Amino acid sequence: MTENKKIEQLIAHNVKSLTISKEKYEKLRTETKNLIKLNDIILNFEEEK
């Protein structure tokens, strides 16, 4: 399952915050990013080690 699909499913289940790396966020489709914004999802970017 793609990252886009996983995040879209989490949003459908009313998740309020996500932890994701900056690189993965940049690779998301525009539609998925818009869903994150429209649903007021809090993004926590994990630090690279």
The biggest beta sheet is recorded as: 2 strands, parallel
Q: What coarse outline follows from CA principal-axis ratios?
A: globular
Task: Give the strand order of the largest sheet, numbering strands 1, 2, ... along the chain.
Answer: 1-2
| Gyration radius from CA atoms, angstroms | 10 Å
Given the structure, what is the number of helices?
A: 3
Count every beta strand, where a strand is a DSSP E run of 2 or more residues.
Answer: 2
Mean pLDDT: 94
- CA-to-CA gap between the ends? 25 Å
**H and E order:** HEHHE
Indicate the structural class: alpha+beta
The amount of helix comes to 40-55%
Quote the beta fraction: 15-25%
Q: Low-confidence parts lasting 5 or more residues at pLDDT below 50?
A: none
Account of the 3D structure:
The chain has 49 residues and is α+β, with helices and mostly antiparallel strands. The protein has 3 helices and 2 strands, in the order αβααβ. It has helices at 3-12, 22-27, 30-38, and strands at residues 17-21, 42-46. The chain has a two-stranded parallel ribbon. The mean pLDDT is 94.
Keywords:
single chain, about 50 residues, alpha+beta, two-stranded parallel sheet, about 50% helix
